[in-house]
Specification:
1453 residues, alpha+beta, seven-stranded antiparallel β-sheet, five-stranded antiparallel β-sheet, 44 helices, 39% helix
Amino acid sequence: MARFADYFIVVGYDQEKAGSGEGCGKIIQRFPKKDWEGTAFPQGVEMFCQPGGWRMYRERKAPTFFTVVLTDIDSDRHYCSCLTFYEAEVNLQGSKSIEADGDDDEEAEEDGLIQPAQVFAPKSLILVSRLDYPEIFRGCLGLIYTVYIDSLSFPLEGLVANLFIFQVPVAGGSQKLFSLGAGDRQLVQTPLNDTLPVTCKSVALLFQQLGIQNVLSLFCAVLTEHKVLFHSTSYQRLGEASRALEALMFPLKYSYPYIPILPSRLLEVLSSPTPFIIGVHSMFQSEIQDLLDVIIADLDGGTIKIPECIHLSLLPEPLLHQTQTALSLVLHPDLEIADNAFPPPRTAPSNLKLLDKEVRAVFLRLFAQLFQGYRSCLQLIRIHSEPVIHFHKTAFLGQRGLIENDFLTKVLDGMAFAGFVSERGPPYRACDLFDELVALDVDSVKKEEISPAKLQKHIRELSEQLYRNENPNPHMAFQKVPRPSEGSHLRVHQVPFPLLDDEKVEKLLQEGVAKHTSVHPSTRPERKCVVPAGPPVVSILCKSGSVFNSARRLEVVRSCISFIFDNKILETEKTLPAALRALKGKAARQCLTDELSLHVQQNRAILDHQQFDYIIRMMNCALQDCSSSEEYAVASALLPLSTAFYRKLAAGVNQFAYTCIQDHPIWTNQQFWEATFYSEVQSQIRALYLNTPQEKGIITARPKDVDEKEQTAMDLAAEQLRSWPSLSKERQQELVKNEESTVFSQAIHYASLMVYLLVPLDTSKNKLLRNAPATDWESGSNSIVTNSIAGSVAESFDTESGFEDSENSDMANSVVRFVARFIDKVCTESGVTQEHIKSLHSMIPGIVAMQMEALEAVHRESRRLPPIQKPKILRPALLPGEEFVSEGLRVLLDPDGREEATGGLLGGPHILPAEGALFLTTYRIIFKGIPHDPLVGEQAVIRAFPVSTLTKEKKISIQNQLQQNMQEGLQLRSASFQLIKVAFDEEVSSEMVEIFRKHLQRIRYPQSIFTSFAFAAGQTAPQLILPKQKERNTGFRTLSKTIVKGAKRAGKITMGRGSQTTLKKNDRGSRMTWHEDDDISISDDGEPPPSSTLRASEKSTMEQLVEQSCFRDYQRLGFGTITASSSRSKSGEQFRITAVNRLYSLCRSYPGLLVVPQAVQDSSLHKVARCYRHNRLPVVCWKHPHTKAVLLRSGGFHGKSVVGLFKSQNPSSTAPASSSDSSSSLEQEKYLQAILDSIPIYFKMNGNNTLSNRSLIGLSPGSERRTSRIPKMAPVHLDIPFSNSFTRGGMWASLRSSSRLSQHPMVADVGARLAGKDLAPPAGSSSLQAQLLKQQAAFYVFGEKSHLRGLRVDSSLNCELVPVDFADTRQVKASFKKLLRACTPSATSSDPDDAFLKALGDSEWILQLHKILQLALTLVELLDSGSSVLLSLEDGWDMTTQVRQIYLLICIQ
């Protein structure tokens, strides 16, 4: 039984403090005067009864009621019900704000006339109770107010005293009638079970206000410990919403600040770092807008605001979807039949209170599904005197298949779940609805998910149970609570609330309490029972694992182990690779630990060297390949085995298996040690209470199939807890002592185990523990340390410094610290006495010192063992001229992410890993070896690529697939789509690896291009073929030096051929060698001589040029013969072939023969060239066989001297300039004009559109300014966004820049040379414009957007500028790297089907190819229709060359 109310308080407006500015309240009276024992008087209650602040009002308001929740230091809640009404304020001396009114009142009183009050002050009646009955409290306070306002003849003192006398049962479902003694009859209905929250209709209201999605977001936010803030204009709504959100969390309990109504003076609480559920009035909206990490819910507007910085974890699928569907079914039942042709007659809407319970039933089912099987992951540590239970989070997450799910991980790490485990963990206690629900069979829940009818039925059953809990009696007793008469609060003349007689209340209270103490309340004893265990944990997705060939794999593992123990070495060698691959499966790893345990029990733990190596490899493989979800289970199963298997190294020196499996990060994970320790303790406690003595078997942490008769630790604990009260004191103390000593002995055992696995065999190498991140040891969170072979881990080990000098003492200290922290945590949690903990701490340094001493001998002896026989190194065959730079380093070629590297998906023996050596030659990186798997046969595995194609070389730490330990490795990626991923053998030192890398860098980036293999290999060619080889190479080196010197000068390049030109034509022979290829681009390295002169005669040089293939090609295209600049072609050819670049003095990257307009002098070409990047001036490279349109190429324009031709021609532009730049610009203008004059005009004058729709779509930016005759097309996303294209009307849609014809007045005298037209221009400019609108441009310049921006084309010239957007070199390189990674992944993807396509899409390589092809297609259309084109992109190579070559390929087709 509990007291109905603890305190009654009257709070009024404080006149004395009102002058200080902000108004405040004061407690006028409180009852009782003294605090109750165990229930302190709530402080600050005067702030909470006016949350918006105390202030006067000009008009009288209706009384208000709301409930405030206060939490005391012991986390007990006090419910303060506040009824506020407004009294006329007479004495206003203290109030500055309304002084004038006060003077009027005083004058009126002197006249003897009482004027109606002008100002009203709030007054609150507050009832404080630890019980949560808001409606009963509303009735009680309302009754006191009614007696006062309607002046009823009942003493208020009696009513107040009765509040404290009345006793209420806490739970049990009984009804209790009571009366305060004012003609009232009130009923208190207690819930059946006080653990279930009572919500009335608040949950249904919350969903009505915010909607399904928003409430689910708030629900997830509260569970993952985010801050939630409600705001509304109603205090009652704030309280209801907070109550509802908390109720949805059941069976979890909210343990952070919970303040449904926060007063204005405490708004700074919103900036606290802890999570909270708080409600504030909407008047403070401006103050809460700046909160960055708070989720704000607007109850009145129905919205929630989640700040950008918050990542809100949502429920895992499929639970999220199922919950949304179930809520929709409950809240919107009409949705299913909304589309029916003949909907059934509308049923009555569900009662809000019943709807509330149905929604809660959905969330109760959700928690039962979320925590399904949680009891199987509870670890019992102590039974007496209080149960101590630990929850194995990692096992639970792993078995549920949610190891990566951050929502459930955050929930399990939260304070609410820690409370849940401590409250619901004990196996013998009072049970409730949730315990029954979570123990349900998984299959029945699945059936409900499939059938909506079954789901609705189950939800309805649950909701009825929840409803019955709040309303157990269907027939409610008659209630009667007098209410104030209508409009009573508006009466003009009201007497203020009277001061109550303290002594009278106190006397009545004493009498009442004395009367009730004589009657002993009948309390129902709490019914305890054994908590149902429920089914074991099932994966949430219910995906059956891959069972492909699983039985066969287990057989392979078993047979391999039996071969090892039977010492059948040859059979072992054959089956071991397959067994190691099989260990990637979970069942195989379990099989391994079971088989090894059997052999330990058969006393076969002493192994010879070969057996020991095989067992170690299998252990390492099992630890390496297991996922983070099961690594705890695998590691804990191997832990006892690692201390059982050993080999004898010398007399009295044994090496145990644990010395060879220490490299895995799991051993430095404190949560792993905790979970394993607790599961071992649980087994020992179970053994303690079992009647039969425990078998001396190996205790593993894996859940086994338990026989029905065999009792679990929880079953035994339930029996013990049931019998505990009936035991004698001595027996109780004996049991406590036994348990404590059991835990203590296990702590000693685990301290030793940890020392074994943390003290390295070789202190100079193992840096695992020192580098372990500083974890918060006190946190109970499960930080999962995966044992993935990340290169970064190893690299950070290498960079770790400061431990190399003071090796041993430092290592010992770090191990002692680690073990001491573990001992502190587990012993304190398990209730080990302080004396035992201290003695354990004093033992640890001694254990570490002994272990280090023992390992020194083991390390010394293990180094004396003969090395394992390794395969012979195979030397690769070299190309002529290729030489070894470094001899082969023994390596293991590791499988990468490609199928063929691992034998393919179809099975068959695996080619990799392969044992061999890595070689470096002057030309290639070569791996040559043999597959490790003997079933593949003796075929050689060779992987090689040219050093010059190396794109990335990365040092990695890699798992050696044979020894199963971490090794230094290299990952080499090539532009030729090759990947070499190797682990260096133990015999290869770090220094040898560094020397190899230095040689690799030297060959990859040679000082001069002539030291590279392509050039240097030629020097070793037979002397008969090239008798003057040495002299020639000298000539080329000289030439390269000359070129570089010239390149460094900003101006033109004038240089001779150097000594190369002294070679006579007959020395060259008739062969075409690389010396003769004029198209070669020569390196920038070396220094040139100050000057060079032409030694060969002009005639012989010309003869050599005429013999070149390019000259014959020009003749085939009809560009005539080589002419000097002075001579004129008689055949009327528009273009000529010039030899001005025969010595590469004009442009070093152009051929010796160039095709230029007939009208241009050779002398002016040097000036023109300066306007283009790398002097690559526009030259003709192709003529269309039918239309005779020409294709020209050039480098991009230089920024300073942009084409004057493209500017509007005005007198100022022709003014002479003194600088060389301006003269170059003038020459450039003339040159482009000459090109315009020379290009033939072929296209039809009627303006037929010859561009196909396809290229129109490709080139148009989707502008709306389409011509009427072009078919309407939807705007297309542009791959080549040509800006401002197709703005001209008519049939022909040309590619032109923005201000083509509109801004410039037409020149009247266009002249006969206007694109070679025979038509006479019309007189009027407007008609000329109309005529031009129908023309296709004769000449198009494709240039970079940045260079053509701002250029304007003279309207009289038949020329168009086309800005082109394309990927720059940096983007192309980045894209290519991504493409390489996609085609040669370094590791196997978890989702191989989509991984390649996704990586290929992300690289954007296909997109770039698409752009180039699209541009080439545009060229085809233009040249076919008779327009000539100049490609002027980038430096005149790369993009320009690619587009041109693709165009030629298309044309030849």
